[in-house]
Write a structure and sequence with these properties.
Keywords: Iron, Metal-binding, Oxidoreductase, Vitamin C. This is Fe2OG dioxygenase domain-containing protein. Belongs to the iron/ascorbate-dependent oxidoreductase family. By secondary structure, the chain is α+β, with helices and mostly antiparallel strands. Helices cover 28% and strands 26% of the residues. The protein has helices at 20-36, 49-63, 67-71, 122-147, 154-159, 229-234, 288-298, 300-303, and strands at residues 11-13, 39-43, 82-90, 93-105, 163-171, 180-186, 192-197, 203-206, 214-215, 223-227, 243-247, 254-262, 268-269, 286-287. The strands form 2 sheets. Strands 1, 2, 3, 4, 5, 6, 7, 8, 9, 10, 11 and 12 form a 12-stranded mixed β-sheet that branches. The protein has a two-stranded antiparallel sheet with strand order 13-14. Strand 1 (11-13), helix 1 and strand 2 (39-43) form a beta-alpha-beta unit. Helix 1 (20-36) crosses helix 4 and helix 2 (49-63) crosses helix 4 (122-147). The longest helix has 26 residues, at 122-147. The structure holds 2-oxoglutaric acid and fe (ii) ion.
Length: 317
Amino acid sequence: MASFTDDEIPVISLAGIDDDGRMAAVKKKIVEACEVWGIFQVVDHGVDPKLIADMIRLTTEFYYLPGEEKLRFDMSAGKRGGFMISTRRKGDVEDWREVVTFFTYPRRDRNYSEWPDKPEGWIGTTEEFSEKLMDLASKILEVLSEAMDLEKGALKKACGELNQKILTNFYPKCSHSDLQLGLPRHTDPGTITILLQDQVGGLQATKDGAKSWINIPPMEGAFVVNIGDHGHYLSNGRFKSADHRALANSKSNRLSIATFQYPAPEAIVYPLKVEEGEKTVIENPITFQEMYKKKMSNEPVLAMFNHKGPNKLKPST
Ligand SMILES: O=C(O)CCC(=O)C(=O)O
Ligand SMILES: [Fe+2]
């Protein structure tokens, strides 16, 4: 049984996890969080608060640039990364956000011509942020491996060469926040996501199929970590793929920076450990690339970021 209360997303300190005694306690908390929610916050994660503050500041500054500056980096015409305005209407509800996508790992895939050159310093800060989050992700994958009762390197090995994508989300304030979602309900496709949100709030998770939604309150300096579909499959469904969404806000603009950790495209997706008599969550091993494609064809909202789906661009106001 989980020791966290039913309506609280766990906050877990990673202080001293390299020491075995402390690791056991962290592991226990992470197991509880992942079995119930698939999402938790981490503090004492070792990423420099100044780097976090700089990343939020510079990212925000980009979104306040005039529309034509931002559109210099638009993702149309087959570009993988860069700036995009994403809108979608479903019944009375629509969502609106601006995004900038950076493909950061493997490093050889970095296409710097797609990385906005303003504000000054954003490229260097994004590079440093990417590297530090890759280190943090590796550490979290080790703890998660142990939490799945596997050897420390198991998840990393199953991922092959780790891929990383940084997606910065800007949700302009909107007066119809009752009719507008920042980002509709979804699960992330990758192994884990490490999310940084500003102090506005709006991220929510559900563990009962959207009957009730729980806020994930902003915490200065904390990261939200969630399990994605790949992580869920590797655990044979024991760890949830976090079901989450972001609300719009009528008073403030909101910023979040999601760092998605993916396996290599050719990595095999299949549970790493199956107990005797237990069924597997997926029938046959498939590659991550196949798994991703299948998900995108079922979830148009995510398909927009596959860059093959709709890619409507309007100048920002
Ligand atoms: O903005 C947020 O808090 C959530 C972002 C998110 O879930 C995503 O980009 O996949
Ligand atoms: Fe997400």
